């Protein structure tokens, strides 16, 4: 009975004022949109229905999604299509590099769908993108947001060899919710991947993020923080989960800005170099500015 009541309450939840964003309509937004379309690039901003797309694209910030637009996983929180994946486009790294150059990006975030069908999970494609950007925009800093590369031996080594500035992989939620929210993934595999990056190259900043509002408990959130620090993760992001469609997992609750401030304070005490925690925080939100803060925080630590 209790579970039924909770589900009924969840269905009647309304988004609070602190979640609402303006519809994108600036000239810069449309300029960025047209350039991305002309170069036939996918972005997680569009595919995942990110609420910050208007703000970010108006500033010519975009998170490019490589390896196609169809994912081999079926996470219940994610709006990216699931099914038979696209064929790899061998020219995508060059087109991505061209976009970075034309947009004049100081910092770029590259993410991807999961590609369990590929022997390397797409690691070599990530590395090619990094190398092509270095050729045409050597001063642009590069952040990768990768899948977990479950059972893809050597994938992390391939990407580390290409030397991204930031390696991001999201744990997404607490371990107890993995079976329902992230069924194709393994929590401790994600932790191991992040820790392995630090073992391979301690100079690369590592980053991970999680959503709240899915039914997790606060002590579980704090345990994830401890686990990520044990894996030597530098940067933690925490944001509110938003249900993309009625087919996806429901929002259990909307976490208040005050609670996000609490999580941020605790995370800083636990030793993260950087913490971004707010209702609209996403992995690549303000990524360029945050990277500069990361560097400053490391040098002053």
Automatic annotation (TrEMBL):
Binding site for [4Fe-4S] cluster 2: 71, 75, 78
Cofactor: [4Fe-4S] cluster
PROSITE patterns, alphabetized: RADICAL_SAM
Coiled-coil regions listed: none
Gene Ontology biological-process entries: protein lipoylation
Catalytic activity: [[Fe-S] cluster scaffold protein carrying a second [4Fe-4S](2+) cluster] + N(6)-octanoyl-L-lysyl-[protein] + 2 oxidized [2Fe-2S]-[ferredoxin] + 2 S-adenosyl-L-methionine + 4 H(+) = [[Fe-S] cluster scaffold protein] + N(6)-[(R)-dihydrolipoyl]-L-lysyl-[protein] + 4 Fe(3+) + 2 hydrogen sulfide + 2 5'-deoxyadenosine + 2 L-methionine + 2 reduced [2Fe-2S]-[ferredoxin]
Entry similarity comment: Belongs to the radical SAM superfamily. Lipoyl synthase family.
Name of a matching Pfam family: LIAS_N
Keyword annotations from UniProtKB, A to Z: 4Fe-4S, Cytoplasm, Iron, Iron-sulfur, Metal-binding, Mitochondrion, S-adenosyl-L-methionine, Transferase
Cross-referenced InterPro entries: Aldolase_TIM, Elp3/MiaA/NifB-like_rSAM, LIAS_N, Lipoyl_synth, rSAM, rSAM_sf
Xref: Gene3D superfamilies: Aldolase class I (3.20.20.70)
Name of this chain's protein: Lipoyl synthase, mitochondrial
Gene behind this protein: lipA
Pathway(s): Protein modification; protein lipoylation via endogenous pathway; protein N(6)-(lipoyl)lysine from octanoyl-[acyl-carrier-protein]: step 2/2
Record-annotated Radical SAM core domain positions: 57-273
Enzyme class, spelled out: transferase
NCBIfam families named in the record: lipA, PRK05481.1, PRK12928.1
Molecular functions (GO terms): 4 iron, 4 sulfur cluster binding; lipoate synthase activity; metal ion binding
Family matches, as SMART domains: Elp3
Cofactor note: Binds 2 [4Fe-4S] clusters per subunit. One cluster is coordinated with 3 cysteines and an exchangeable S-adenosyl-L-methionine.
Subcellular location(s) per record: Mitochondrion
Positions that bind [4Fe-4S] cluster 1: 45, 50, 56, 284
EC assignment: 2.8.1.8
Annotated GO CC locations: mitochondrion
